[in-house]
Amino acid sequence: MQRLLSLPSRIAREFATLEPDRALDWFVSSDPVGQNLGSGGGTAHLLLEAWRGTGGSHTFTDWLRQSQKLIIHAGGESRRLPAYAVGGKALIPLPVLRWSHGQRLDQTLLDLQQTVYESIFNSAPASARVMITTGDVLLRYSAPLPKLPEVDVLAMGLWVKPELASHHGVFFCPRRTPNQLAFFLQKPTPAHIRELGEDYLFLVDVGVWMLSERAVNVLMQKCGGEAGVSKYELFADFGLGLGAKPARADAEVNALTSAVVPLPQGEFYHFGTSRELIESVAALHNVVVDQTRWGTATATLQPDMHLLNCNYQAARSGSHTTIWVENSHIPASWTVAREHLLTGVPENDWELELEPGICLDFLPIDADELCLRFYGMDDPFRGEVWLGRPLSQWFAARNLPLVAGDLQQAPLFPVLRKREWTPRFIQWLFAAQPTHDPALSALWLKSPRLSACQLMERVNLQRLAAQRTENRESAVALLAQNYRQSIFYKLDLEATARLYAATKLDLPAELPAGAAIEPLQRVQDAMFRAAVLRRRQVPTWERDEARAFRLLREVIVRETELAPVTPQRCVLEDQIVWGRSPVRLDLAGGWTDTPPYCLQFGGKVVNAAVDLNGQPPIQVFARVCARPELVIRSIDIGVEERVRTFAELASFDQIGSGFTIAKAALALAGFLPRFNANSAATLEQQLNNYGGGIEVSLLSAVPKGSGLGTSSILAATLLGTLSELCGLNWSEHDLFRRTMALEQLLTTGGGWQDQVGGILHGLKLIETEAGLEQTPTVRWLPGDFLGNNLTILYYTGITRVAADILREIVRRMFLNSRATLDIVGEIGRHAASTADILQRNDWNSFGTAIATSWQLNQRLDAGTNPPAVQAILDQVGDYLAGAKLLGAGGGGFLLMIAKDEAAAHRIRATLSNHPPNAKARFVNLRISATGLQVTRS
Asked: What is the pLDDT of residue 656?
């Protein structure tokens, strides 16, 4: 996906310097200076500029076909939100929402828009080549998107009241065929909407339009094409020609197919005016009103008083509402009222009293000057209304000659050096009834003055950005110190560490020992410190990171330590306990089950327990022996180890130690004092108390690194077998939790889906709620799909162990990496939609769901699809409805969904005749009807 952004001309020219990180992701341009191209012409111009700048020798058509193009339009004069006119509304700094995880202190509206727009675009059909969106709107939706239709123009809409719809474009759809677009109208009156409502459903346009290549070509033709772009409106011209009964006759546009899809459980936040900025952010803060989900004591904050990138010392009370303060110093000597936008205010000791509705915007000019733009909250900067009153009143009250004309063009705003600005002059500028002072009138007359239009080109953007950075750096240290009331540990701590490391600030003090602090906060604190030190190239960062992983292990293992057991012999001398389990196929949702993600957000996984070649491939045999020792054997590897001391048994976390899974399982079964309610002085004594030694034989008839969850399932099977051998009476849920603890003991980490997937039979949706107590809820699904000839399991002979991958992704989870949390959240939502597909027995969508699962895994870890595996898929890609490598790291087994019986036959024939290596082979799978079985002879 290529991202294109239109901005005002000044910021567009300096974007790469001012926003180097964002510049890596976005191609930025602006409309030609002095030309009004309209939304359609602006789209055509931006596409042509991007083609000329990034297309190389490709034709425009070939360039268009190379990738999808996401366009966000954020240019324009922003008259109704002047504080952010220079940078464009998409670059408005936004506060971290109190309920969110993974947001950044330097985030902008663009960052939040990008997440939503890309999520929608990723769900679009392949025919959608260009998505056109608006830069002053933020969308949210909380339900999975429906399948989007293949049409030339696809738009997203929302169900709203006629009064709200009348301010925007409106789609009208026949009541009998609601997915068909009948026609589109631009800002119809509420009365007209109601009149049409007798025959049509209506949805408001949320500003998301997706165009096919054919539609792009029509738009380019209407705008003048490559020869030169002329003015053309996307909504008022192009849009009116869409639908089965278009509002405007235009043969080329009328011929395009079109549809509108309601955004499921959608929300629409507008940032078009100063007041909407404050109201929309307040509404976003209140999306979640459940205080238990905030995680901080923020209930006393004013919901529509927003302070960011600032040092605010003025008094606050319940009457101070509808206030926005950003990139500013507001000392205690200021008196605020309500309805203020205060931006760019420099450090000062002024005594000011703001009247309701007054907004102040200080803008740096040249090297050491400041321009003050003062205005009213609802000023339109169009016509002759200023500070909420006729422009002429301001001049008359100050005995000044009237400067008439459009407010955007009038040179009203004085430019002075910072030391020349006095509170007396500032108060005089905005006061409703100013003091009569000829000296102040003379100062205004003789000072250089700029219009709002001139400010667009004159602002020193480097100084403005430097001030914002300095204020932000001051704020981050305070947030860390005030972690109990702030959102610090919910931030994107990776991005915060990058910001912190660039400062000269010392690391925050470590969290106090013994204090009532959330366990995961201690883990995140250690990981944050490691991230800062790593960026500062301080070698001790590895120690802090290791401490973070140790703290997580302690949190998860602590439960088993608090529930120690006493193993008791309950088998006869000649009895053998036999445990066997299927393996699991992860179909959707993998990674959502991994701590710390599942502890914070809960998990959602669809997987299946399957036997291979007619047998459960994971097997454990256990018996009691006479000698007081633990004997561990591997049938498939052919090795053996005897354990006679607690130290040998506790070596499961040491690199190079053999049989780590078995040792950890025996420890959890009560043969290590740490987990025994009545521990002995030595292992020999412990075994004598038990009634003899134990021999355990392990069989894993699956290669290591296969991606079938074998390690966790082997651990769970062994724990289940020991439960029977030692009279522990562990339930399935006990086995789930203790297997997760076992993996933490091994320092490999891991989630719960492998053991749940293997222990429990069949095809299922498995869910957990957020919290340290991870108790799965299981809903079984029809497993017919995995029993037919179209579902093919192929061992590629190419394995990849997930430990290193797991550690890196878990690190990003610890740090609330926004990119990681977004992808894993999408993985969870996809699991829900996959379960729905299976429940509906929708075979046509199943292959697509499997393909999407793997695409999401690749977005999380690009190495999931190695070239050798892609080479296999290249051979059979034409026959596939979907495919994915199984396992967290993309293991050795490849699940393929054939398009039909003939395609399945061709897949088998092709790979049988041309195997990638000597180990590659097809493996028969069968849904397990039993899951874990434990029996005794």
From this structure: 66
Q: How far apart are CA 234 and CA 46, in angstroms?
A: 14
Pairing of strands 305-312, 323-330: parallel
Q: Would the CATH topology of 577-772 be identical to that of 786-932?
A: no
Q: How far apart are CA 345 and CA 370, in angstroms?
A: 10
> How many Cα atoms occupy the beta-carbon half-sphere of 834 within 13 Å?
32
pLDDT 10s digits, 70-119 = 999 999 899 999 999 999 999 999 999 988 899 999 999 999 999 999 99
List the domain boundaries for the chain.
2-270, 295-459, 464-561, 577-772, 786-932
Q: How many helices (H) and strands (E) does the chain have?
A: 30, 37
pLDDT at position 849 over 90: yes
E strand or H helix at 559: helix 541-561
Q: Are strands 449-450 and 603-612 parallel, antiparallel or unpaired?
A: unpaired
Tell me which of 3.40.630.30, 3.40.50.80, 3.30.230.10, 3.40.50.2000 is the CATH number of domain 577-772: 3.30.230.10
Residues with Cβ within 8 Å of residue 288, at least 6 apart in sequence: 98, 99, 294
Torsion of CA 301, 306, 312, 315, to 10 degrees: -50
2-270: CATH class:
alpha beta
CA-nearest of 861, 905, 902, 913 to 884 is: 861
Helix (H) or strand (E) holding 33: none
- pLDDT confidence of residue 923: 95
Q: Which of 507-516, 667-676, 774-783 has the lowest mean pLDDT?
A: 507-516
pLDDT at 296: 55
Question: What is the residue-wise DSSP string for 315-378?
Answer: ---TT--SEEEEEEEE-TTEE--SSEEEESPPS----EEPPTTEEEEEEEETTTEEEEEEEETT
Question: Residue 348 is encoded by which pair of tokens?
Answer: 């000062």
Q: In this structure, what is the dihedral angle of CA atoms 715, 720, 724, 725, given to the nearest 10 degrees? A: 0
pLDDT band with cut points at 50, 70 and 90 for residue 802: low
Segment 391-396 mean pLDDT: 94
- Give the span between the Cα atoms of 188 and 179, in whole angstroms: 21
State the Cα–Cα distance between residues 83 and 79, nearest whole angstrom. 9
Q: What does the pLDDT read at residue 561?
A: 85
Q: Does domain 786-932 have CATH number 3.40.1170.60?
A: no
Separation of alpha carbons 799 and 813, rounded Å: 25
Which residues pair with residue 609 across a beta bridge? 584
Candidates 413, 419, 327, 430; CA nearest to 369 is: 419
Please provide the average confidence, as pLDDT, over all residues in the chain: 92
- Say how many CA atoms lie within 13 Å of 497 toward its Cβ: 26
Q: Is residue 173 within 8 Å of residue 203, measured between CB atoms?
A: yes
Instruction: Round to whole Å and give the CA distance between 208 and 168.
Output: 13
